[in-house]
Specification:
The chain has two domains: 143 residues; 141 residues, no CATH class. It is built from twelve helices and two strands; from the N terminus they run αααααααββααααα.
Length: 363
């Protein structure tokens, strides 16, 4: 049992800002997916194949109805797109939208099942909601940066590879006072990146999956950071390489192992109050260019290895199993006959015994 340590004002404020930013980021992502789905309904040949830009949002807010989009014309649409995108896009993007609108009108015509006006109104509402979420997110991000500067003045968390503008404040809010964890292993276990314990009697099973008992936000942040850190730090690149080539791990499992090592290094950096220094596998400090050269030369996983490590399981989560021979033969004794209709008695069996009925004799 250890005493509960509550955060101070700056740490508590950082925690709330980090949570708010994460929630708003997820809401914005869901809103973008919803907008793309609605546009796909009204215009099946939608030009929205990548990220949603400001020019696309401006078009959808005004002309989500393909009939209105065609009436707007090439000139007005080009001017709107150029203004919304700061002249990064123009007539080419307008042509894509006009082609999608023309295809939708030719496909649906005036069929009553397609409510162009109502779908356009719903899309415009989603665009306005997305902009409101983006405005709130920007305000919370500004305050999150201010709180982070008070909590981690030296920006030690951001000195680790993979942890930058978003990851640094997120892990700082979770770790709080690093001295409340006796060792780096305790912090790793707190995040849920340590293997799950499985002890029965005198046995201790190894190779268990990670417990996932800690903060989902911190764990996801470190796993995403691990994918970048393995490309910048030779030590972490070697860990990833060994997991993929020697341990038979697939990409995500190898990243979880790298994330666990990154969590231990995060605790060490915050505990010692010293910034992280990238070194080679012999412990000598190297520049970012030298580190990338070492990783490319020694710790790069080939595409053939990645292809072999990809999971071959079915979507249900289990590998297909081959049926036993006995199950293919209806006359086999080991065949599974549950659910079959009653079978008639074969001719080689003896006659059925008649059942005797017991009757009481009258007295």
């Amino acid at each position: 049992m250890r005493p509960l340590e509550l955060p101070d004002t700056a740490a508590a404020a950082l925690d709330r800002r980090v949570r708010a930013c994460d929630r708003l980021t997820m809401a914005a992502s869901e809103s973008k997916v919803r907008i793309k789905d609605l546009v796909r309904q009204v215009m099946p040949c939608t030009p929205l194949t990548g990220d949603l830009g400001q020019a696309d949002l401006a078009v959808l807010e005004r002309y989500a109805d393909p009939r209105r989009l065609l009436k707007a014309g090439r000139g007005r649409l080009t001017a709107l797109i150029a203004k919304a995108s700061d002249n990064h896009q123009g007539q080419a993007r307008a042509e894509q939208w006009l082609a999608a609108a023309q295809a939708a009108v030719e496909l649906y015509g005036e069929h009553p099942a397609v409510a162009f006006t109502d779908l356009a109104a719903e899309i415009a509402t989603e665009v306005r909601l997305l902009r409101a979420i983006a405005a709130e997110l920007a305000a919370h991000e500004t305050e999150r940066e201010t709180c982070y500067r008070w909590t981690d003045p030296a920006q030690l968390a951001r000195s680790l590879p993979g942890l930058a503008k978003v990851g640094g404040p997120a892990v700082t809010a979770v770790i709080g006072d690093p001295d409340r964890f006796p060792t780096a292993a305790h912090f790793k276990s707190y995040l849920g990146l340590a293997p799950r314990a499985s002890e029965t009697g005198n046995t201790d099973r190894k190779g268990q999956p990670m417990s996932k008992a800690g903060s989902r936000l911190a764990r996801a942040t470190l796993i995403r950071a691990a994918d970048h850190a393995r490309k910048q730090d030779p030590h972490l690149a070697r860990v990833y390489y060994q997991q993929m080539t020697e341990r038979g791990a697939e990409h995500l499992k190898a990243l979880c192992v790298v994330a666990a090592r990154l969590a231990e290094r995060l605790w060490t950096v915050m505990h010692r109050r010293m910034p992280y220094v990238i070194c080679d596998t012999d412990g000598n400090p190297v520049t970012p260019e030298q580190a990338k050269h070492l990783i490319t030369e020694q710790w790069t996983v080939t595409e053939e290895t990645r292809r072999r490590r990809r999971s071959t399981k079915t979507r249900a989560g289990k590998a297909p199993q081959q049926a036993h021979t006995g199950h293919d033969r209806s006359h086999a004794r080991s065949a599974d006959k549950r659910g079959d209709l009653p079978h008639q008695r074969s001719s080689d069996q003896g006659p059925a015994r008649s059942s005797r009925t017991l009757t009481a004799h009258p007295r």
